[in-house]
Write a structure and sequence with these properties.
heterodimer, A: mainly beta, six-stranded mixed sheet, five-stranded antiparallel sheet, 11 strands, globular, B: mainly beta, seven-stranded mixed sheet, four-stranded antiparallel sheet
Chain lengths: 110, 114
């Protein structure tokens, strides 16, 4: 199986920057996804990394290091609406099935 | 962007009855759809992978006779919870792949079994 580890909870201040880390097993790797999920809603796609490096998309950036089995999601200029769970998930090489980490619950405070 | 819908969004049923949940890709053809289940404050758990025209592949621990999945067309997959019981109460989410790597999620169906 694939073990994905990410912190359970994080707290940050509005306007600040927060980095959510994720580690995964490198075997059978086929892409690393980040999803945002607000309470009671389905996840929404944030980013997909398959090559090493940082990909920036507005206030959100995602980083991947395949050799280290490590990724992070960087959120800049935090807004209250960014309070949500952030799910790190890994695709495998057998049909792109996703395995999710436990999610990181981010609380943004004024 | 790709849109996936689910119906119904909310369902309450009596114990012992069966409930069908539909998952549709509205503007693309999805050769593969996935069904997930989520308990409160927990991560998504993959239940099964559904490929159009073939039998679904179930994850370990998921009863295929209880959770019937049909993927009759490239835009529709259904999940039927048979003889539902209170422990089946959960948030069921489907997702669909466009053929690229990204999965697009439906809005989810909240099932409450009384």
């Amino acid at each position: 199986g694939q073990n994905i580890d990410q912190p359970t909870e994080m707290t940050a201040t509005e306007g600040a920057i927060v980095q959510i880390n994720c580690t995964y097993q490198t075997s059978g790797f086929n892409g690393l996804f980040w999803y945002q999920q607000h309470a009671g809603e389905a996840p929404t796609f944030l980013s997909y990394n398959v090559l090493d490096g940082l990909e920036e998309k507005g206030r959100f950036s995602s980083f991947l290091s395949r050799s280290k089995g490590y990724s992070y999601l960087l959120l800049k200029e935090l807004q209250m609406k960014d309070s949500a769970s952030y799910l790190c998930s890994q695709g495998d090489n057998a049909g792109n099935m996703l395995t999710f980490g436990g999610g990181t619950r981010l609380m943004v405070k004024p | 962007g790709a849109v996936v819908s689910q119906h119904p969004s909310w369902v309450i049923c009596k114990s012992g009855t069966s409930v069908k949940i539909e998952c549709r890709s509205l503007d693309f053809q999805a050769t593969t759809m996935f069904w997930y289940r989520q308990f409160p404050k927990q991560s998504l758990m993959l239940m099964a992978t559904s490929n159009e025209g073939s039998k679904a592949t179930y994850e370990q621990g998921v009863e295929k006779d209880k959770f019937l999945i049909n993927h009759a067309s490239l835009t529709l997959s259904t999940l039927t919870v048979t003889s539902a019981h209170p422990e089946d109460s959960s948030f069921y989410i489907c997702s669909a792949m466009t053929g690229l790597e990204t999965q697009y999620f439906g809005p989810g169906t909240r099932l409450l079994v009384l």
